[in-house]
Design goal:
Layout lengths: L2 H15 L3 H15 L12 H6 L2 H10 L6 H6 L17 H4 L9 H7 L7 H11 L10 H9 L6 H10 L5 H15 L5 H7 L7 H10 L15 H14 L15 H13 L2 H17 L30 H10 L4 H8 L3 H8 L14 H14 L2 H10 L4 H8 L3 H10 L15 H10 L4 H8 L3 H10 L13 H4 L8 H7 L5 H11 L5 H8 L3 H15 L4 E2 L8 E2 L1 H10 L2 H11 L10 H12 L23 H12 L7 H8 L3 H13 L3 E5 L2 H6 L12 E5 L1 H13 L8
Antiparallel strand pairs: 1-2, 3-4
Helix pairs in contact: 2-4, 14-15, 18-19, 22-23, 25-26, 29-31, 35-39, 36-37
Length: about 725
Amino acid sequence: MNAPLTAVITHHARPLLGPCHDTAVHRIQQLRTHQGAATAPHPANMTMENWKKLSPRMRGRFVHAADAHLSQLDRVRLHSGGPAARIPAPGDAPHTSRSQHIPQLLWPHWTLRFLPPQGLRVDLFRGTVAALLFLPGAGSRDKKALLKPLHGHLANYVARTLQVISHSGYEQVFPALCRIADYIDEHGSEINYQRRRTLIPAETISEAAWQELCFRTNTHPGETSTPTAPGRLLQARRYLFQLLTGADLTDPQHALAWKSPNDRNRYVDFNVSLSLQQRKGLLQHAQELLEGLGIDEPVTWEPPEECCHGLVLPGPRLDDIDLDALKRLVITEGRKPSDAARLLNTTVTHVRLALENIDHDERQWARTTPTSAWKLREHARTVITPAFLEREYTENGKTLTRIARETGISRHIVVEQAKATGLTIYYSQRPIPMDATWLREQYLTRKRSTADIAAQLGTEDETVRRRLLQLGIPLRPPGVHSHTIMTAKVDKSIPRNIRAAVEGTLHGWLRLHRFQIAMALPNLETAADYLGACRGALVHQFQRLERDLRQTLFHRAAFNKPQRPTRHGNALLRSLATDQIQALMHSSLGPGQIIPMPDAATLATAVIRLTSRQSPGPLRPFGDGITAERVRITSSTLVLLRDLLAHQNEEFYGAQIHARTGIDNGTLYPQLKRMEGAGWLTSRPEAEDSWLARAPVGFGPGRRRTYYTLTPDGLRAAMHEVQHHKPRRRTA
């Protein structure tokens, strides 16, 4: 070989063999351009024998230079996007050692960074990209064989995912995957996913633990899961299982796999609905689950961000979003995550991941919900303690019903707590000592009722009755006649009319007190208003008083004529005015029932009411679209309305109505005028030829008739009054 040829070869070979990787790759790319397009990494004119003689570093430079011409699968498998490019040996299988460090679903943050804005389903993308982490350095191109240990169900999606990423212009995703795979090969991970997939059960949380977690975080646990209606408990188990193992629930081999697209949507909605406190509770439960299995690892882990330093990836970082705006859109305004993503110019995946860091406003639950019931029971545990029950129930003898009333806690919760503390509960009255001599004196001598005795002892009426029967004491007839006030006798020094009013009767003193006040007022209406009672009740009470005394006590009032007591009524009033009777009355009634006598101003107002007639006031409009005004309905008006309805399609004049109904003309004609003014009737004068034709021979025509006709509103008003009129009651 001559010197010039050697110089030329050396000149071209020096950049290829030099220490600068980028310069060598650039030179190889120029040579490939001169030789024409090629799909293989090695030069077109180089034999395979010579190619194999090249050093691994040189072959890697040729692979890197051919990156743009390789298939997407080979770009990942050969690391062709960076200096670490190399052609693996046929027996290389790094995926076997990598499987324990890679979850079935790509880590959430890296999913957000790698996911193109459109073209791929998130759950399939996460599983497929996690599967791509097995490709770097693999000696075989058989996707099914590579993914069989972990992602066999996604082998058909690998090519589609690589194609979408490549056509979207995000070529740097491929070197990013290779860097993450290299990081795992060099450093491993803090989580052994393969061990977790083996040890962690499908029932990651029990129903009782889930309810307790929800109650402590002021959230609703939902209904119990059934095969036909998966509840929130099933979604919580899926959430924990996926959080700990990175499992792909689209894989049907999992016991918690989604059964249908709707089942998957329910899980997504559940994930979005979790409050921040609820997520913290689930995270704490997951940590306790790992500790129980003897696994000393963090709950979650992801490769560090520095793995892909300097690469431009399609997705944003997790913190590149306005959390306040997101909370306003989704939590406050209730918008869908897709709408919030469109308004914030990001992806739905970004929104859903960011929502995991936003707390929901605390919700107020109704008293009938399980959450409120749990809060009540927690409050009961702090109040109804063993020491409290020992003091109040055992020592002070209070019933559980009384304890519930005093504490404001429902009785059934008090009973539950009492049973939980091991308290002996009496389901009947606890024995109360009753002295036989004392009981005989109270019941036989003082004529006290069993109800009074029971109230004094703090027991029930029936308990006293049973004790009397044990002592052989005959019982008085039950009911009001056995009350102490019915059996009590008034001293013989009390006037006879007072004794007749109060002995053997209830509320006798109250009737006497009201009679004394009523006789100071002009009539029963003003007396009822002053006493705050109903006039009918007052009439009934005074009639009872007259029956007890067997005398008429007062003359009833009439218009402009006040009521006045009879001779017997005056005698009763004189007896009531004595100091002795007033003292007895005050002691029997108590301060709540005593009303002072009316003063001069009250009496003057009552007299004015007696001597003046009150205007009935305007009538209420009909309503229901009836524009006619209302008129006052008397018995004659009602007869007139029935006659008009019977001849509603006819014209009429006053004499016809008088002949048919017999209503007096002095009543009939003013009523017709009032109804015409109120819009019920229209009128017209009799035609002149008819008027003149009615004149007798030799006489004038006489009075001209006025014909009336019901208006449409008048017809409806008449029907309304006839149907709804209630006759006024007459008192005897």
